[in-house]
From TrEMBL:
Designated name of the protein: DUF4402 domain-containing protein
Residues of the signal peptide: 1-23
The keyword Signal belongs to this UniProt entry's keyword annotation: yes
Keywords: Signal
Amino acid sequence: MVKRTSLPLALSCVLLATLDAQAENCRLSLSPPRIDYGAIRRDAVVENAAVVLATRTFNLSVLCVEPAVMALRFVAAPADGQGFRFGREGRFRLRLKHAQVDGRAVGWVSAQAPDESARGQLLPGQALVARAAGLPVAGRRLTAQVDLDTELPFEALMVRGEANLEGLGSFELISQAVPPSQ
């Protein structure tokens, strides 16, 4: 491993998360709504196959007028089946943790494979459904911590000046209100 110390160029990395709540009954919000890695200097990074940026954490909340089954997806350009595109060559991953619906702890299952635990990882093209005791959970308030992990190939830092890398996407609530009889 060689640590480069003679390259004074900087790289700025920014991740934006835009919001798009699909259920008109509910409002989805992120805090903070934007994650900024700031400037990353090549001389501060050990040359390696990948540069792993520090995990960033933010809070997601959904507030509904009427109870709704809580199901989420993240829509962004896929990097591969396990993450979303960050810049041209990097990727980021999102994981939901410490989720609660109306104060009750819930787990996550894939809407596409409801018999398998998703461990909270949001994957391209997939939705997660909040579950407890093996059943989908309906409620008015969902809160969760979202961990963001980002990695870039070292070559992405080989720029002549400052460059911005972005990962853009939106969370979508894809649930419908639960009929009053339930």
